[in-house]
Design brief:
This protein has 324 residues and is mainly alpha-helical. The protein has helices at 2-5, 14-48, 52-62, 74-100, 105-110, 112-147, 158-169, 178-204, 207-214, 225-241, 244-255, 264-275, 284-319.
């Protein structure tokens, strides 16, 4: 698990940073491409309070075909690498700092899971400021055919939507839904990192994984694809199931343009009264299914990137001349 092994080390190689970013972009983009249709169905369900079959039918009909399932994908597709780099960068740096304040290895071991949760929560807090405008534009593009089939005859592009939001609501309008997004991301990202570490530790002790590792040579990759995929998927599911109502509220507040909801609690209360408690869990199945490929790809990309950095860094140290 290079993600945890390298939290103790600060690797400053520019090559490592570039490789890290490229890997996160490639795997993140693949995850977005696979998961975005599921995300569109989930978003439509939450914004319109409909079932999965109804949402699929409406998306297909109102968007004239399969392309509707990929609306709003551009910004997440090109920015997922940067967002994940921020997330894991902040997480690694804060975990390293929290480990340094421990007075002994025993104390560090005892506080490890607590420190991971804190570092993950801080990372979730920081990345929410970057991700909020991207999510806002994505959701507006995904749901605009539910609210308005045609908007002033303009072609709906991410940049057009960005300009429209800034023109109507100012720069602060890009952060519509930030509070429920923080409720969705801050503590759940602590759970996310904690669940990934705990799952990989558990799977590493199984006979199946140990037998696979005994068959590897020293030149083979030390990242276990099966373990990383399963742990990443499980971490994604666990971090999502406990915050689904906040995701629903965030989607509703970001999808509507007339600002009828004054706050997160106003939105929760109004939807609960009108549609019942089930409306606060709309899109749950799509959200869980989407979390599997997306989060598996995220951790696979990052683990392979860190392994490459680790090997490159060692080679650089060994090959560099020493002066005494």
């Amino acid at each position: 698990m290079f993600l945890e092994q390298l939290a103790d080390k600060k690797i400053c190689s520019s090559h490592c940073n570039v490789n890290n970013y490229v890997w996160m972009n490639v795997n993140g983009a693949l995850g977005v491409f696979v998961a975005h249709p599921l995300d569109t169905i989930k978003t439509w369900q939450q914004a319109s309070n409909t079932s999965v079959p109804t949402a699929v039918q409406q998306i297909y009909k109102r968007n004239n075909g399969i392309n509707g399932f990929y609306r709003g994908m551009f910004f997440p597709f090109v920015t997922t690498g940067a967002i994940n780099s921020i997330l894991f960068g902040v997480y690694g740096n804060h975990l390293r700092q929290l480990r340094r304040v421990c007075h002994s290895d025993y104390q560090r071991e005892q506080l490890e899971y607590k420190n991971m949760f804190i570092a993950g929560s801080i990372a979730g807090f920081v990345q929410s400021f970057v991700a909020c405008p991207i999510e806002l534009i994505k959701i507006r593009l995904q749901t605009h055919h539910y609210y308005n089939k045609y908007i002033y005859g303009h072609r709906m592009t991410p940049f057009w939507m960005f300009k429209r939001i800034v023109k109507n609501d100012g720069f602060s309008g890009l952060f519509r839904g930030l509070v429920p997004m923080m409720c969705r991301d801050v503590f759940p990202y602590g759970i996310y990192m904690l669940a990934y570490r705990y799952t990989t530790t558990y799977l590493d002790q199984t006979e199946f994984v140990q037998a696979r590792r005994r068959l590897r040579s020293e030149d083979d990759t030390q990242v276990d694809f099966v373990v990383t995929t399963m742990a990443g998927a499980w971490a994604g599911i666990l971090s999502w199931v406990c915050v689904i109502p906040f995701d629903v509220v965030k989607t509703i507040m970001q999808a509507e343009e007339n600002r009828q909801y004054r706050s997160i609690w106003h939105c929760l209360n109004k939807n609960f009264k009108h549609y019942g408690w089930r409306s606060l869990f709309r899109g749950s199945w799509m959200l869980v299914v989407r979390a599997i490929p997306f989060n598996a790809a995220t951790f696979v990309g990052y683990e392979y990137a860190l392994e490459w950095c680790h090997k490159y860094f060692q080679v650089q140290v060994k090959s560099s001349p020493k002066y005494y």
